[in-house]
Amino acid sequence: MALPQRNDDFRDEEARLRAIDRRDAEIEARREGGFGWIWLWWLFFIVIIFGCFAGWGWGGYGGWWGWGAPRAGIVQPMNGATVTNPILNATDRQAFVGKTLSVTNTQVLHKVNDTTFWIGPRDEQSLLVTLSGNNNTLANAGIGEGDHINVTGTVDKAPAAQEAQNQWKLDGDSAKRMEQQGVYLSANQVEKINNNNNQ
Questions:
Q1: Residue 52, pLDDT above cutoff 50
Q2: 49-56 CB contacts, 8 Å cutoff, 24+ apart
Q3: Using CA atoms in the order 94, 98, 102, 103, what is the torsion angle rounded to 10 degrees?
Q4: Mean pLDDT of 38-67
Q5: Residue 185's CB: how many other CB atoms inside 10 A?
Q6: β-pairing, 183-192 with 127-131?
Q7: Sign of the alpha-carbon torsion through 162, 166, 167, 169
Q8: 97 Cβ contact partners less than 8 Å away, ≥ 6 residues apart
Q9: Stretch 3-7: mean pLDDT, rounded?
Q10: β-bridge partners, 187
Q11: Neighbour-count burial for 49-63, b at 16+ CB within 10 Å, e otherwise
């Protein structure tokens, strides 16, 4: 014959089972809440990666919405020839500082002196060039305003406007334009393009 169970043991066992159920419910709630946060973190991470490399161009790829690093573009010189010169189309020319590049089939817009001049398809896209090296002058190359040239050099950070005026004898407007652009081309090679190549 079985002995009747004590009422206290039954209550203790019931309380223990309720505590286990509560703990299991809390663990499940934490898992569900944590899983939701993980999805939010993944979504945040995907948006950042998308923004860096695609939409906003923070990773240096230019982006779909026009912000970011300079991109190569097509420039139309006055005579109608098509030229690809990325620095002339760039809105942020600072990205080119320290790089060696060639600007091809571009026009000499304004001559400051025999070693300093502006190139580009038009004033809005112009770039200041300074020739370096012995006997590297426009006169020696037979180049004047309006001529089309190829020029190769290193992009350097522009000095302050006052310093540029003193160093290269620029007028005030030219010095301010160069300071706003933030760069100039220190060229070691310049060559005139024959007129029949431009037509």
A1: yes
A2: none
A3: 20
A4: 62
A5: 24
A6: parallel
A7: positive
A8: 155, 156, 157, 182, 183
A9: 58
A10: 131, 153
A11: eeebeeebbeeeebb
Identify which has the larger pLDDT, 104 or 84.
104
Bridge partners of 131, per DSSP, are 187
pTM confidence score: 0.55
Q: What pLDDT is recorded for position 78?
A: 44
Are residues 122 and 109 in contact, defined by beta-carbon separation less than 8 angstroms?
A: yes
pLDDT of residue 157: 92
Phi-psi region of 117 (alpha: psi -120 to 50; beta: other; left: phi over 0): beta
Asked whether the beta carbons of 109 and 123 are under 8 A apart, the reply is yes
Q: CB atoms < 10 A from the CB of 140, how many?
A: 12
- Nearest CA among 72, 151, 159 for reference residue 119: 151
Q: Residue 36: what residue type?
A: G
pLDDT over 80 (residue 79): no
**Mean pLDDT for all residues in the chain:** 75
For residue 123 the two structure tokens come to: 């004033």
CA distance 108 to 138: 10
Neighbours of 132 (CB within 10 A): 12
DSSP 130: E
Q: Could you say which DSSP state residue 134 is in?
A: T
Q: Residue 193 has what pLDDT?
A: 86
